[in-house]
Amino acid sequence: MNISKEQIDDLNAVVTVNIEKEDYSDRVEKILKDYRKNANIPGFRKGHVPMGMVKKQYGQAVIVDEINKLIQESLNKYLTEEKLDVLGNPLPKEQADFSWDAEKFEFEFELGLAPKFDVNLQGDDSITQYKIVATDEMIDNQIKSIQKQYGKLTPVDTVANDNVVAGLFENEAASISKQATVEIDALQEKTKEQFIGAKVNDVITVNTKDLFENDQLLVSLVGVSQEQKDSIDVDVTFTISEINERILADLDQELFDKLFGEKEVTSVSELKEKIKEDAERQFEQQADQQLLNTVTESVIENTAFDLPADFLKKWLQVSGEKQLSAEEAAAEYEKSEKGLRFQLIEGKIITDNNLQVTYDEIKSHAKELIKGQMAQFGQTNPEDKELEEIAGRILGNQEEVKRISEQLMSQKLLAFYKENAKLEEKEVTFEDFVKEAYKS
User: Fold this and answer.
1) d(C-alpha 277, C-alpha 330), whole Å
2) Which of 349, 333, 334, 331 is nearest to 409 (CA)?
3) Domain 2-113 belongs to what architecture?
4) What does the pLDDT look like over 348-367, one tens digit per residue?
C-alpha cells in the first residue's frame, strides 16, 4: 500500500491511497474462513460449505468492508505521522468506471488544511476594561432592602407611603381573580394617590397600564400572562383586605450576626463596606464576562486568515445526518464561519501559551465547588477523603467534566487577555456599565 499527497495550495491537498491485493487478501481470507465455519446453507453440514460458495456469496462484501477499514486506518495514521492539521474530514473524490471487481485500487481524498496565522491581540483601538463600583445610593438602597426583609409588619387603619396592602385583583371579563400583597412604593404615582388614605374593604379601580412601575409585577401579582403584560389595557378592581406598616429592622449587632455570622460585622460602616465588597465582587464577574466577549470579537476582527471555504462547504453537505444541497451548505457555512475562526484562534492561543486544562485542575476545582456548597449547610471543614469521594462521583459524569473544563478554560483565557490584550480600565457605576457595554 502506498499513500501520497499532492499540495494544491496552502489550504487544500489531495491524498491518494493505492491498495494492492496483498494489502487486504489475508484479512479477507481469514474472515471468509470464519464465515465458512459458521455458515448455515441448506444441503451442507455446518463447517463443510465449499469455500467457493462462501466467496461467491460473501466475498465482495467482505472485500469492500475490509478495504474501507484499511483506508480509514491508513489515512488516520498518515495524517498523524505527517502532522497534517485538517479541518472537517477527508472527502473521497468520485471515480469514473470504478469497480470492486479489480484487484488494485486507487482512492483520492480531498483535504481542507487549517491555515497558518499569528494571533493579533493588539488592535488599533484599546478595549475598555470596566471596573464597576457600588455607589453610596446603591449601598443605602441595599441596606434599606435588608431592613425591610428582616423587619416586621404592623396592622394600621389607613394606607400610607411605604405600607403593604393585601387584597384581591378582579376583572371577570379578563378572567382576572388573584390575591396579592402589594408594596405601595411599587405603584405608579397616579395610582399610588388612589391608595393613600384607603381603608380595609375599600374597592379601588385602576387601569393595568397605570398600575406598576415595573410591568413584570402584572404577571406575578395580577396574574396576566407574560405575553399580555406589555399590551393589556383593562380596568381591574382591588378590594383591600389588610393594611400593614412596615417597621424596618434596627441596624444592630443581632441583625449583623444574622447576616454574616457572629461578630463578622460590628458597625454600620463595616456593614456598608461588606455590602460594597460583595456587590463589586458580583459586578466583577459581569465585567469579566463582558470583557471576554469583547476581546473575542476583537481578536476575530484583527486576526486575518483564509479558510478552505469551498472544501468546507462540500464537507458540510455530507457531514450531517441529512445531506444538504449546495445552497443549504453555503448558508450553513456563512452562519458557522465566525465560530470556526474563533475555534482556530482560541486553539492556537491555548497551544502556543500552554493554557490546557489538566485533569488535576478539574478535580481541584470540583472539590472547591463542593466545599463551597457544604459550607452553606454549616460544614466548614470537611475531610479530604469525603471531598475525594464526592468529586469522584461528579467527575464520573462527562457532562460535568466538560462544564468544569470550559469554566476553567474561560478563566485561563480571561487572565491571558488581561495580561496581553490592549486594554484601558474605566471606572463606572453599574447603570453606566449597562448603558455603555450593552448600548441600552
Assistant:
1) 50
2) 349
3) 2-Layer Sandwich (3.30)
4) 999 999 999 999 999 999 99
